[in-house]
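To: structure subgroup
Subject: Chain for Friday's discussion

All,

I'm putting the inputs and outputs inline so they're searchable in the archive.
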Amino acid sequence: MGKIKAMWEKDGYILRSSEKKDAENYYQQNYNPLDPEVARLTGCKASFTRDEVVSFFLSCIDDENRYDFLIVDPYGQIIGESVINEIDWDLRSANFRIGIFRSDFRGKGIGSWAIRMTCGFAFEQIHLHRLELDVFSFNPRAEQAYLKAGFKREGVLRDAVKDGDSYADDILMAILEDEWKKTGQLLR
């Protein structure tokens, strides 16, 4: 049985399942070079080789324990991703992450929309019970988008990450299927 494919559209933006043919554009449009703010907000390293990105991207397509969605602008450029990964099918639980790779698309509601669509997919299509994430305390805009979508704070790992020379917190958040049914569907 193959993975479920999905696609949503809003105001010319598309959120859709990743495909193998996207690998090169995904690298060229977002990692060549990687926006330093993306690396900071996600905690990843500052640069990746083409082979690292393309081979990882391709390995994700067939991984039955994850769903990778691309956020595409009205001109067909990949501007971000929304990912359900580390799926535990027995617990019906998974990790969630999202990234808007280009600064000119942040703060426009695109990420909030993608969060809602991905949560809907997680709870309504693949029938997860729990979706969890972590967000750094120096990314309050992302934390607010998660709260707006119905995620709840579950804990804080104090001074668990560095932001330059300063320590920052790693905030743990999650949303459960019954919480999504009460609030999340109303947001769509």
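Points worth raising on Friday:
The longest strand covers residues 152-163.
The radius of gyration is 16 Å.

D.
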